[in-house]
Design a protein that fits this description.
The protein is α/β, with parallel strands linked by helices and 389 residues long. The protein has 2 domains: 239 residues, Acetylglutamate kinase-like (Carbamate kinase, 3-Layer(aba) Sandwich); 130 residues, VC0802-like, CATH 3.30.2130.10. It contains 11 helices and 18 strands. The strands form 3 sheets. Strands 3-6-2-1-9-11-12-10 form an 8-stranded mixed β-sheet, sandwiched between helices. A 6-stranded antiparallel β-sheet has the order 14-15-13-16-18-17. Helix 1 links the parallel strand 1 and strand 2. Helix 2 packs antiparallel against helix 3. It is globular and about 60 Å long. The mean pLDDT is 94. The structure holds adenosine-5'-diphosphate (ADP), aspartic acid and magnesium ion. Aspartic acid binds next to loops.
Length: 389
């Protein structure tokens, strides 16, 4: 018997009946004797609506105040889940990130975890309580409340699992696990029983929402076993683990593991000078991708940050800049895709009717940049080619 960390995402704790259903399942698990630490996200859409409220007041909210605001979402879900467990007769207590001892740097909106002083969690576990921790948040060394970036509750969960030396970390979400592509777009996407840390990292960094990229980094760095599974059924989902040799032993075959995608991306082209360095240092928020093209910095960023980045650019003294909306990405992940002319020919033939802006590759990925409107169609097309019906 040991510690198990279980994280429940926003859509899994989206309503009181859902919270009650989860509490009932957890009550059964509690009696099996493991020590349970639960990490929760804010109830579905809560963080977005809080973000929207701030933007009704200003186009460039103070990042500190945003952190104070957005962390309120997780406080609601953590206390409701604790109340539901207490109703089931299970002793439980909820903690904010700060009370849990999650210490971060001071980058409001995208803070990094420095350490976890988990003594309060241990104290309560030793009193046979289930401990519920608000995901996505921590406290800086200057005692300010911080957030870990959107989707960051996964990172809270894996970090806690690591510091608590948990047996494993289970990420409960609104799909059955990690699929070969987003199952909401590709209806016949395949549930992957397992995926390597490296492929999962590539998938997460390339836009697949199912796991926060920093959670995968943490898990791979500290060898935390992670399983992604359904919060509706609790059935076995996808294990994320070290790479194994392929079972079929066909040497050097191309192996597409999964396909990631990203929509609604803004692209800025910024002259590469001193001001650009300052800008990058000031923008402590998330970026989807940054590249350098000749004399220009190319910044791909989610369009929800448009007003904030525009404000920062004006403040930094830029007036004329190239900015385009509606960029999209479809990214094949797997081994053997890089620098293979025949593979490239196959992809080009398939996407002849798509308005591809650029194709480039990493060691484990082939990235297609295209208009957002053509992302879903391209994803389905490529999935059909590499995974069949
Ligand atoms: P949570 O609220 O539980 O954190 P998220 O919305 O952040 O859930 O992530 C789960 C969503 O990720 C799914 O609903 C699914 O639409 C999306 N997703 C994208 N790519 C994949 C994939 N390859 N496998 C599974 N889900 C994916
Ligand atoms: N509630 C936060 C968000 O919506 C964190 C999370 O869901 O992981 O981004
Ligand atoms: Mg998430």
């Amino acid at each position: 018997m040991g510690i198990i960390v279980k994280k429940f995402g926003g859509s899994s704790v989206g309503s009181v009946p859902q919270i009650q259903a989860i509490a009932k399942k957890l009550a059964q698990e509690y009696h099996q004797g493991d020590q349970l630490v639960l990490v929760v996200s804010a109830m579905a859409r809560t963080t977005d609506s809080l973000f929207g409220l701030a933007h009704e007041i200003t186009s460039h909210p103070s990042r500190r105040e945003m952190d104070m605001l957005l962390t309120a979402g997780e406080r609601i879900s953590m206390s409701l889940l604790s109340l539901a467990l207490l109703e089931e007769g299970i002793p439980s207590i909820s903690f904010t990130g700060s009370q849990s001892g999650i210490i971060t740097d001071d980058h409001h909106g995208n803070a990094k975890i420095l350490k976890v002083n988990a003594f309060r969690i241990h104290e309560e576990l030793n009193k046979a309580k289930i401990v519920i921790v608000a995901g996505f948040q921590g406290v800086s060394t200057a005692k300010e409340i911080t957030t870990l970036g959107r989707g960051g509750s996964d990172t809270s969960a894996v970090a806690l699992a690591c510091y608590l030396q948990a047996q494993h970390c289970e990420i409960y979400t609104d799909v059955a696990g990690v699929y070969s592509a987003d199952p909401r777009i590709v209806r016949n996407a395949r549930l992957l029983p397992e995926i390597s840390f490296m492929d999962m990292l590539a998938l997460a960094y390339n836009g697949s929402k199912v796991l926060h990229p920093r959670a995968v980094e943490f898990a791979s760095k500290y060898k935390v076993p992670v399983e992604v599974k359904s919060s509706f059924t609790f059935a076995p989902g996808t294990m994320i683990k070290n790479e194994e040799s392929p079972k079929d032993k066909t040497m050097e075959t191309i192996q597409v593991t999964a396909i990631a995608h990203k929509e609604n991306i803004l692209r800025y082209l910024i002259p590469l000078d001193e001001k650009a360095h300052t800008l990058l240092n000031k923008w402590q928020n998330e970026v989807f991708k940054i590249t350098v093209q000749g004399e220009a910095l190319e910044l791909y960023i989610e369009d929800k940050y448009e007003s904030e980045i525009d404000y920062l650019l004006t403040e930094s003294g830029y007036d004329e800049l190239s900015k385009d909306h509606n960029w999209g990405f479809v990214i094949l992940i797997g081994l053997g895709l890089a620098a293979d002319p025949a593979f490239m020919a196959r992809v080009l033939k398939l996407t002849q009717t798509i308005d591809i802006k650029r194709i480039s590759h990493g060691e484990r990925s082939l990235e297609l940049i295209l208009p957002t409107q053509q992302v879903a169609k391209t994803l389905v097309l490529l999935h059909q080619e590499f995974f069949g019906e």
